[in-house]
Amino acid/amide ABC transporter ATP-binding protein 2 (HAAT family) (Actinomadura hallensis), 260 residues
Amino acid sequence: MSAQRTSKTPQTTKDAVQALLSVDRINVSYGEVQALFDVSLRVPFKSVGALIGPNGAGKSTLLKSILGVVPISTGTVTFAGEDVTRLTVPKTVRRGITLVPEGRELFAGLSVIENLELGRTVASKRSSTTDDLLDWIFQLFPVLKKRRSQVAGSLSGGEQQMAAIGRALMSEPTLLMLDEPSLGLAPVMVERIVSGIARVTEDFDMSVLMVEQNIGAAAALADRVVVMNVGRVVSERDATGEEGFDIDELTAMYWGQHTA
């Protein structure tokens, strides 16, 4: 069974060859416990990459390592031609990388609009006005415009996820990283969030790297799926034209039944 991908503009030759993000043989440990083993990854310009795999595979650790939350023992992370391996989180964010963490981490007592505007304080660039960005985010997720004056803690799980993504987009990143954006959400909310994320690379010069347990959502969005297990990359697949990915094959890869 194959998954139809969201419609995307074909990459230019430069975009397809030159990577926005290159992770080269990084190793990460939590104390005496090694979490990542020689992990390498490439994210081209204006592309969507998805990391899948069972719990404990190291997917979230990889995102945190790229951002600088978790220190890298050995290996390098290169972003837009610059070595960002040892940068602090604020410096990495200002270079144009942002992360929507699992759990969203909104300020529950602040309104939706206040949460969104907080994302502007760490903007990596200011090519758009705050009002223009808000208008764009409200186009991506119209429900946020209706809820703009509500406190974030009163939103549904799906609405909170939309607000968290919107806050990240307010910083005008070049690479948007998402940790489990569909986790615990109703199918209708997953569909809306997938639709919003799909527009990101179309409307702006932006790439997306996401951790996703929902294989269908990953297949619908991604140009490339990377399978991780026990801290290692065990398999990778590129989308095949408009036909996208074979869901049965991705599911088998997820559970370690097929590697290549």
Q: What stands out?
A: Confidence is low (pLDDT under 50) at residues 9-17. The radius of gyration is 17 Å. The chain has ten helices and twelve strands.
